[in-house]
Amino acid sequence: MALRLLALHGFGQNAEVFIQKRAKELIRKLKGTAVLHAIDAPHPLPYDANLRGWWLYGSDLWDGKAETIQALADTLLQRPSFRPEGLQESLSLVLTEWEKGYDGILGFSQGAILGAALCAELQRKGLPPPRCAVLISGFGKPVPEGVIFPSRPLPIPSLHIWGAEDDHIPAWASEALATRFEAAKTHAHGGQHFVPQKAADLNVVVDFLKSSLDPPAASPKPEKAAATKAGLPVSTRAPLPGLEELKNALSAYPPVKSCGQVHPPAAQPAETAAAVESTSYLPEELAPPGTGTYERLKALLGAASAEFSELGPHPPCRTSEDSVQVRLAGGWSDVTLHSGAKAMLLRTAAGTWLHTVLPADCKLSWKKVRALHGKGTRMATEEEVAAVTGCLPGAVPPLAAFPEKVMTVVDNTLPETINFNCGLRTRSMQMTRKMFESVQDLVFADIID
Predict the structure, then answer these.
(1) In the prediction, which pLDDT does 226 show?
(2) Which of 419, 423, 427 has its CA nearest to residue 393?
(3) Given 74, 148, 371, 384, which is the most exposed site by the fewest CB atoms within 10 A?
(4) Of the listed 103, 166, 322, 411, which one is catalytic?
């Protein structure tokens, strides 16, 4: 008997579009092996109520227009997690649908990550897992808040497929999702962000599903709900605490010696280096990629006799919103989301590195950037950010004190006072824009929407 698969369509599609258009060739190829049953996601899209999403995005991430979906994807890829609107409603919907009796899951794009979340939720509840999962163009980074994977890979046979030329969800993001599954099978087709259409690629799916038709070998029983509660959540973020809670948290961190206005003597770089060497670091700051960029930045500012204020160590800031709360709790004024100097690393079509700086409440205009640096310009991966800048994502400073050469482009709207993480998520700096411009050669341009 053919497998019955629950099909979860992608963002901006619906069940009818997915079955009749996106997966048409796959369905033909699966005849006799599997039958797809697709359901509609519950959330209509702002620009077309006939098209659906398993979750939507806040106005801080997306303006609700079809033409900015690519920019949305590029923005999400620089984050470890994000807040999906309506995810729990969708998860409840597919859990109820799953009770109707399915053998496996087939998901595309947003539907693929929802399919993976369903697998994790079934295990958490101690329910029988799917016999198989086919996840096409899914992403394991960033992880939607509310999706909690167990600490160990899911013991579910899975096939993960992506397009080698996909500029919407790159291969590394799909590979990250595959790591959530035990002994996952992977396959890259030669196309972009779509369900593969060529026979050779479709045969990979057919062969995988045929293996699920055979009587399953004995496998570990799914963990019971009580046991899985001990699993560590992955890349989820608790709600931001209030200012009083942050002030209490700050008191647990030793004050940095150079906090306040600093005037290092330009003629004595050796003293500047010695001051950096004497800095007391937290264990988390010494973890890879380490403190190198922070130290190079301090030396750079010392050589330029730059005036700045420094705060830290403080609770780690992964987002611009976190940083505002922590800096206000630390006693700084002139701190708003707009005053945050957000740094983003891009890879240009020519293969060079572009270090962009813009106010934290603004969105990078991919249309403008790609008009200047080529259509293939993209967001750097987390691994590339660490290798090029020596920082974790979220810690990249607006001044290029990096181990690799980059070109720095600053948006014209940067305010008169700027705040930023300075190579570490646990330390912040504040300086005037005039001082910032005096430290390095910068290129100014209109790069925001």
Answers:
(1) 36
(2) 423
(3) 371
(4) 166
- Average pLDDT over the chain reads 85
Residue 188: count of CB within 10 angstroms of its CB: 17
pLDDT, tens digit, 9 for 90 and up, residues 126-156:
899 999 999 999 998 888 998 989 989 999 9
Give CA–CA dist 346/405, Å, rounded.
13
**Around 357, how many Cα atoms within 13 Å sit in the side-chain half-sphere?**
28
The strand ranges marked E within 92-229 are: 104-108, 132-136, 143-144, 158-163, 185-189
Sheet holding 34-39, edge to edge: 34-39, 3-8, 104-108, 132-136, 158-163, 185-189
Residue 256 above 60 pLDDT? no
Q: Using alpha carbons, list the distances in angstroms from residue 169 to 110, 142, 225.
A: 10, 11, 32
**C-alpha to C-alpha distances, 437 to 213, 246, 406, 418, nearest whole angstrom:** 65, 32, 16, 11
Q: Is the dihedral of CA 36, 41, 46, 50 positive or negative?
A: positive
* Residues 51, 28: Cα–Cα separation, whole Å: 24
Q: Does 303 or 158 have the greater pLDDT score? A: 158
CA angle 298, 439, 274 (to 5 degrees): 25
Token pair recorded at residue 299: 């030396």
Strand 158-163 vs strand 81-82: parallel, antiparallel, or unpaired?
unpaired
166 is catalytic: yes
Residue 246 CB contacts under 8 Å (≥ 6 apart), including other chains: 315, 325, 326, 328, 329
Q: What's the whole-number mean pLDDT along residues 65-85?
A: 88
Residue 413 is classified by DSSP as: T
Residue 272 has pLDDT above 90, yes or no: no
Does residue 15 register a pLDDT over 90? yes
Separation between Cα atoms, residue 407 and residue 415, nearest integer Å: 21
Q: Structure tokens of 378?
A: 């993209």
Q: Give the 3-state secondary structure of residue 325.
A: helix
What are the structure tokens assigned to 67, written together? 């033409």
Determine how many CB atoms are found less than 10 A away from the CB of residue 236.
Answer: 15
> Where do the domains of the chain lie, and which CATH numbers do they carry?
3-228 (3.40.50.1820), 243-445 (3.90.960.10)
pTM of the model: 0.54
Catalytic residue among 9, 168, 189, 193: 193
199 three-class SS: helix
Residue from 223, 221, 211, 200 nearest 134 by CA: 211
pLDDT digit string, tens, across residues 111-121: 999 999 999 99
Indicate which residue of 109, 158, 258, 323 is catalytic: 109
Of 257 and 431, the structure prediction assigns the larger pLDDT to 431
